[in-house]
Amino acid sequence: xxxxxxxxxxxxxxxxxxxxxxxxxxxxxxxxxxxxxxxxxxxxxxxxxxxxxxxxxxxxxxxxxxxxxxxxxxxxxxxxxxxxxxxxxxxxxxxxxxxxxxxxxxxxxxxxxxxxxxxxxxxxxxxxxxxxxxxxxxxxxxxxxxxxxxxxxxxxxxxxxxxxxxxxxxxxxxxxxxxxxxxxxxxxxxxxxxxxxxxxxxxxxxxxxxxxxxxxxxxxxxxxxxxxxxxxxxxxxxxxxxxxxxxxxxxxxxxxxxxxxxxxxxxxxxxxxxxxxxxxxxxxxxxxxxxxxxxxxxxx
Length: 300
Known about the structure:
Helices cover 29% and strands 22% of the residues. The chain is an alpha+beta fold and 300 residues long.
């Protein structure tokens, strides 16, 4: 004798009756005036608007995280050869650092630079880029010099322009070559030009040919001048409020990618994470209480 099995559908498949008050509420919305419907929907619209505003605020907060902007200007020396300049070529990787020098300026740095830190950071970045320090077994192929400081640098956006630098500010006499006329029509040219006119903090790395590899005198019998091979200038803004020591590693990490490289543009801007700093609070002193002979809270 067979057994019949009754199949009971799950709750999710059962159409449940609508409560009387819910049905009345739905009918009241259906037959309400447009203003009443708007009033009922207002809390929902307000909630959606708040959610969108929260998402936009969160996204804006992420984009507003402070970034360090590092400007890099790099050039490879190319002597004239025939009707043009000699082709680009890679120079030697075995180096010796001849010196690190502070450029004198009327405006002092916020703090004296730790040249030992600068030297170590430069050596680390050179190693990452395939450079090897000279030794007794390997003579240097390039001699590196480093200068750093604070000041106003030559504006690369004024290349191919005749300027009267005796005026204050300098006056453009002629716009010069067609390359400059084309540059003036490029995107954000004026803002870049104005930014380049500001005072800067800089680290300037230059590579020179080893004097031992060049003749002491030229064909005319005159003493041979040092032969510069390439230069990389690494720059940040706001020198009056920034301690160069804090930014040395970030600057060299950005600029070392352009060692012995030619940048066709005036400069490249690299945005990186702002280095973490710290605030050291000195003991608090209350001048009025000390003048009255009392102790400040810090001295309790």
